[in-house]
Design brief:
alpha/beta; Rossmann fold; 2 domains; 6-stranded mixed beta sheet; 4-stranded antiparallel beta sheet; about 30% strand; globular
């Protein structure tokens, strides 16, 4: 990895963070190109938020090197704060202030001149669809509008790098889609977006992804690369009766490396699909469980994630 390349906005090599005997981030390395939407995908406790806090200069790494916009996270964190926007997973605005007062507060923090602040306020209000709600208390806004306002405040000073830590947690699907339209618009303008999420459909919107588990990166690539390069086994989509009983029976068969329930379906992961499908028919027929449909499918990111995290834990 070359952290001197001007096209690299975020660089990390062998980055670690421990809290006593607990390893939160375990020797991870990656780089993010300028204008890229880069995602960290993983469950709670995987180390995503800790990594973001290190990159934002809020935590000092225990070991390793990281640079953001060319600045070292260990020694130049004050400079980093001037060149990034940060939106935490917990709502980051002041709910007892109006929309306009929140903009004034953040504009003061960023030291915007009156002319520049007026122009940026206008952009944020239009982007967040809050032009006619400047006097509304922020706490009274619907969650989707709050999130758009929080995004606007995070980019009020037009930072080149934007960190979003699970920004759409708890937001309805339509508001989540609208929020991602805004993220794509920012990226198209050259802003580097680093986002953490545990929503699989959001991960599909990223240019590249790092899958995290237990503080380590277990896979890295575009969504398509993760499905093809990292997922070397076949996924069988099974629709049948009594799916919990069926999943337990099939999970005991060694021919399947992974058996997982996806809504009303079962996904079976195997290296020998033809034999595995026959095994499925035999096992469920003996148990008197009817099969409605069974076919080989292209793996989803959730399939990849479940399979890789299961292998990692083993």
């Amino acid at each position: 990895m070359n952290n001197d390349t001007p096209e690299i906005a975020v660089f990390a090599h062998d980055l670690s963070k421990t809290f006593g005997s607990f390893v939160a981030v375990d020797h991870i390395s990656f780089e993010v190109r300028k204008g890229e939407i880069f995602g960290f995908l993983g469950p709670n406790g995987a180390g995503k938020t800790t990594t973001i806090k290190i990159l934002c200069g809020l935590l000092t790494p225990t070991a390793g090197v990281a640079r953001v916009s060319g600045f070292d996270v260990s020694t130049e964190f004050e400079e980093i704060k001037k060149h990034i926007g940060y939106m935490s997973q917990k709502f980051s605005l002041y709910e007892d202030l109006t929309v306009s007062e929140n903009l004034d507060f953040f504009g003061g923090i960023y030291g915007l001149t009156p002319d520049r602040k007026a122009a940026r306020d206008e952009w944020v209000l239009k982007m967040a669809d809050l032009t006619d709600k400047t006097g509304t208390l922020t706490g009274a806004l619907p969650l989707g509008w709050k999130q758009r306002l929080a995004l606007g405040c995070a980019v009020l000073h037009e930072p080149p790098v934007l960190f979003l830590d699970e920004p759409t947690s708890g937001v309805d699907p339509l508001s989540r889609r609208n929020f991602w339209d805004l993220i794509n618009e920012l990226a198209s303008q050259g802003v580097t977006v680093f986002v953490t999420t545990h929503y699989m459909e959001e991960a599909e919107y990223c240019n590249r992804l790092a899958l995290m588990a237990a503080g380590r990166i277990i896979a890295l690539g575009s969504p398509n690369e993760l499905k093809t390069k990292w997922m070397t086994e076949t996924v069988i989509d099974l629709e049948c009766e009594h799916i919990i009983e069926a999943a337990e029976l099939l999970g005991a068969e060694k021919i399947f490396s992974e058996t997982a329930i996806f809504g009303s379906l079962i996904h079976l992961v195997t290296r020998v699909p033809d034999t595995a499908m026959q095994t499925t028919r035999d096992v469920l027929e003996r148990a008197g469980i009817g099969i409605s449909r069974m076919e080989i499918i292209t793996p989803s990111l959730e399939d990849v994630f479940v399979t890789l995290t299961s292998k990692d834990s083993r």
